[in-house]
Amino acid sequence: MDTKTQDLVNKGIMLPLMEEFYTIQGEGCHTGTAAYFIRVGGCDVGCHWCDVKESWNADLHPPTLADTIVENVKKHANTVVITGGEPLMWSMDYITESLQKNSIKTHIETSGAYAFSGKWDWFCLSPKKTKMPLDECYPEADELKMIIHNKSDFIFAEQEAEKVGQKCQLYLQPEWSKKEKMTALIVAYVMKNPKWKISLQTHKFLNIP
């Protein structure tokens, strides 16, 4: 990458775009709603069960002008979900400001492991044990989405729930490869602890992106 391009990436004017697509949000609070997804490359959180490992190496994904991405969004949707990879590895200030100037709602799905940036209508925080969220990200969370891979993850979920604000909605989501076993445990847990809600990866059941 040449120096000029690297400078634009550092400023968030360009982003390592892995893919972008218009689909239905499959997880969390906005399940079932239409949204334009922007998946940026780059992640060192290293979840062993990640289903998008091809996003980890940012060098594999071409730097793309944020302005071009915004123009693509405008053709399809009034809500954007920026995900990854780990989107907060990059400055989100430029692209979110541009989206909001065009009356497009901005949502993010992040581990919170990098410095907060961007202007968000919805901030979905999904903490991972391998690289914990920064303290500054917890008060921003509108939604806490905890992935349940084993029984110890319920303890981790409760620990993380103590760190977010009262406005934050709490979700438990079974890790896909363990969905049968973990879903049953989550159902029982939510019935005993109704502050939590269940999130399912409904897009996978629907066989859509």
UniProtKB/TrEMBL annotation:
The keyword Magnesium applies. Catalyzes the complex heterocyclic radical-mediated conversion of 6-carboxy-5,6,7,8-tetrahydropterin (CPH4) to 7-carboxy-7-deazaguanine (CDG), a step common to the biosynthetic pathways of all 7-deazapurine-containing compounds. The gene is queE. This is 7-carboxy-7-deazaguanine synthase. It comes from the Bacteria. Keywords: 4Fe-4S, Iron, Iron-sulfur, Lyase, Magnesium, Metal-binding, Queuosine biosynthesis, S-adenosyl-L-methionine. Pfam families: Radical_SAM. Homodimer. The keyword Lyase applies.
